[in-house]
């Protein structure tokens, strides 16, 4: 899918990953498994709320998964902005692997595990999505968000969702998407100027690292 990049007005999009939602210390495939934020994740969202308090978001967008919704609502605070849930922003479906540990999957599905590792863009977990399929639903949803909103926008996404969007905007092959770091509660700043998107900042832990993108340290309304 090709993103409609040639647009007239200047826009700033804050693309976040939800806060920490790990429920144990195992490395797991967590796609549509509907985990909630843990204590650390809630604290991360509250920090983001303070960090972003000076920006007037017309809308906050998130997926329908609890970890994304909870992060968005904690950032929004009480009555600060409307939170809109977008199903197309849900994390990649991991099918039969969803919720299972990587060690368990590698043991139970050695061939599929290897094939997906060799070609993560086009090979999916059994019953799940490939990253190419994920990108095909995320990009149109992103475009619609831009059409339906004005001014600075905040999107609380997921690691896979954010990576396929960022890869698209910078022209990176999907096979290399794991080169893009997306830590829990990270900030990515996307700026559209003169009809073109650029990724101003990626995988930040604090807003201070991207203030240079905006006059007086805050993004304009347009």
Attribute tags:
222 residues, alpha/beta, Rossmann fold, six-stranded mixed sheet, 6 helices, 32% helix, disordered C terminus
Characterize the structure shown.
- The chain has 222 residues and is an alpha/beta fold.
- Helix content is 32%, strand content 16%.
- The chain contains six helices and six strands.
- The protein has helices spanning 39-51, 66-76, 102-108, 110-118, 131-148, 159-170, and strands spanning 11-17, 59-62, 82-85, 153-157, 187-193, 196-204.
- A six-stranded mixed beta sheet has the order 3-2-4-1-5-6, with helices on both faces.
- Strand 2, helix 2 and strand 3 (82-85) form a beta-alpha-beta unit.
- Mean pLDDT is 89; it is low at 1-8 and 215-222.
The quaternary structure here is single chain
What is the rounded distance between the termini?
A: 26 Å
Tell me about the biggest sheet?
6 strands, mixed
CATH-wise, what's the superfamily?
Phosphoglycerate mutase-like
Overall shape: globular
Structural class: alpha/beta
Number of folding domains?
1
Order of helices and strands: EHEHEHHHEHEE
- Strand numbers in spatial order across the main sheet: 3-2-4-1-5-6
Q: If you average the pLDDT, what whole number results?
A: 89
Radius of gyration, whole Å: 17 Å
